[in-house]
Every structure is written in C-alpha cells, then in structure tokens.
Design a protein that fits this description.
Length: 131
C-alpha cells in the first residue's frame, strides 16, 4: 500500500519531467516554422511590392499544415503597393499551444508570462518593385 501511495504521488512529477523537454522542443520547432514562413513570404512580397492575397493564403496554408486553425492565425502585412526603396513588412502571431502544460516561470511578471503564450514573428525587407 505504501508503494502505491508513493507511486501516485510521484507519478505526476515523473510525467512532467518526461514531457517537459519534448514540449519545449515542439514549441521551439513551431516557432522556427512560423519564422521561416514569414521570411519566405517577405522575400516574395519584396519582389511584388506587397503581400498579395495569394501570398497571404500561402502563409495560412503553411501554418495550417503545422497545426494552427485559421481563426488562431493573426497576420498583419503591407497590402498596398510599395515602390522600390520602401519597406514591406509582416507580423504573424499564433498561440503557443503547449505552454499551458509547463509551469509558469517563478521569476517572470504576469506581463512577461502572457507574452510567452504566443509566437510572434516579424520580417521587414526593402521593396524591389519598379512600376
């Protein structure tokens, strides 16, 4: 009986320490995928002078393949034509899905903690579009 009680007390801690590195790795990988998505779209937008609807749709499809739903994806991008010398920029904000399973860091304020609940990636590039 002692062994069963000690096992039930230690099992959640054991599971936490087993899953923590895997969940951290998954979230880090998802963040890198979001960054790659916004960088590639920005390269394309720099040539076209703006983020076309096709480029935005391509970004959403890529993020959908990672596991995000359309209503979770927030994209702010330059949608007006920018001539050469101006800047095209985009920001993607998607939720950090597995952070709720991890413990809240002890030394962070609530503001710092709430900013960790999202992957926010931005990219800026000078437009190459010539009219």
């Amino acid at each position: 009986m002692k062994q069963l009680i000690s096992f039930t007390m230690l099992f959640p801690i054991l599971v936490f320490f087993l899953l923590q590195p895997i969940l951290n790795y998954m979230e880090e990988t998802r963040g890198k995928a979001v960054e790659i998505t916004v960088q590639r779209a920005t390269e394309k937008a720099a040539i076209e002078g703006y983020y076309s609807p096709e480029t935005l749709l391509e970004m959403k499809k890529k993020l959908n393949s990672i596991g995000y739903q359309d209503n979770e994806i927030d994209i702010n991008a330059t949608q007006s034509v920018t001539l050469r010398g101006g800047y095209v920029e985009a920001t993607i904000k998607v939720p950090n899905k597995y952070y709720f399973l991890l413990f809240k860091p002890l030394f962070l304020s609530d503001k710092d903690y709430s900013s960790d609940l999202y992957h926010v990636r931005s990219a800026t590039r000078m437009s190459e579009y010539i009219n």
